[in-house]
């Protein structure tokens, strides 16, 4: 399962509303090869479920992830941080054995 923090939920709902996205919009997360640690995270808004997607809902936020990416993201919490060191969505991934300094890529 992939979960969503209260901060991530609040910010996602704000973005969906401010960008006038359809009411069936959800968050699509995934993993690609690349980045300084070997794998990088993907996050986007979507409203089309693809064949093979794993679908989760936490705190009223629907999340879709492809089967391959799910293997790397099991147990991950999507969070949102804002502060002097930057702001944005972050992945708290218990499967990552190493991460890069910016937190946008990881290795297992």
The level of helicity is 10-25%
What is the H-and-E element order? EHEEEEHEEEE
Q: Please indicate the percent range of residues in DSSP E strands (runs of 2 or more).
A: 35-45%
N/C terminus separation: 18 Å
CATH architecture level-2 label: Sandwich
Helix count, DSSP H or I runs of 4 or more residues: 2
Largest sheet: 6 strands, mixed
**CATH topology grouping:** Hypothetical Protein Aq_1857, Chain: A
Mean pLDDT: 87
Spatial sequence of strands, sheet with the most strands: 4-5-2-3-9-8
| Domains (count) | 1
Structural class: alpha+beta
CATH class, anyone? Mainly Beta
Count the strands?
A: 9
Rg, alpha carbons? 14 Å
Structural descriptors:
three-stranded mixed β-sheet; six-stranded mixed β-sheet; alpha+beta
Write a structural description.
- With 108 residues, the protein is α+β, with helices and mostly antiparallel strands.
- It has one domain: HesB-like domain (Hypothetical Protein Aq_1857, Chain: A).
- It has 2 helices and 9 strands; from the N terminus they run βαββββαββββ.
- It has a 6-stranded mixed β-sheet with strand order 4-5-2-3-9-8.
- The longest helix has 13 residues.
- The two termini are 18 Å apart.
